[in-house]
Amino acid sequence: MNIDRLSTLAAWLEDGAPGVAFNMFTFRHTIGTVLGPEGDPCDAPMIKRQVAAKGLSLSDICCGLDGATVQLFLPEYPVSQSQDYGQLQDLALNLLGLPRMRKGPTWDCGHDLFDPSHAPPDCSPEQAAKAVRRLIAGQDPWI
User: Disulfide engineering: 56 pairs with which of 1, 46, 60, 142, CB 3.0-4.6 Å?
Assistant: First the structure.
């Protein structure tokens, strides 16, 4: 577990995840892709609020914790329309020094920390920061 990187991630989230729209159900895509015809309309209001509040554009990034990790520590990693989510999660796990965890048959998320089904509905960056801090302390991130 890379405590320094996890602490940096938590601090960035506590600062509101500047420069990105944060959404646990998004890996790492442009905001335009997430809000486009293939996007989930349930996520749109939360993302649109962040776009307005942060002054973001459709070419800026929308991401959850795994994508945020890549965005923060490896921003040059390419953003594409379709990504290999397992590859992105593995990269994020490696960047944070976390083990890969296999979950149930319906959702194969790399780690509980990245699993949106464990996070609260409309999880804010600040709530995600608390989960990261709990993980650092050796606790279940999403209690």
Answer: 60
Q: What is the mean pLDDT of each successive set of 10 residues along the chain, which is 143 residues long?
A: 97 97 91 83 87 95 93 88 74 91 53 86 94 92 87
The per-residue DSSP string of 38-50 comes to TS-TTTHHHHHHH
CA proximity to 9, closest of 105, 123, 125, 109: 125
The per-residue pLDDT for 81 is 55
CA 106-109-112 angle, to 5 degrees, is: 115
Provide φ and ψ at 125, rounded to 5°.
Answer: -60, -35
Beta strands in the chain (DSSP E): 20-22, 28-30, 61-63
Between CA 23 and CA 68 the distance in angstroms is 10
Q: Which of 67, 104, 117, 116 is nearest to 87 (CA)?
A: 67
Whole-angstrom CA distances from 58 to 1, 47, 95, 134 are 34, 11, 27, 33
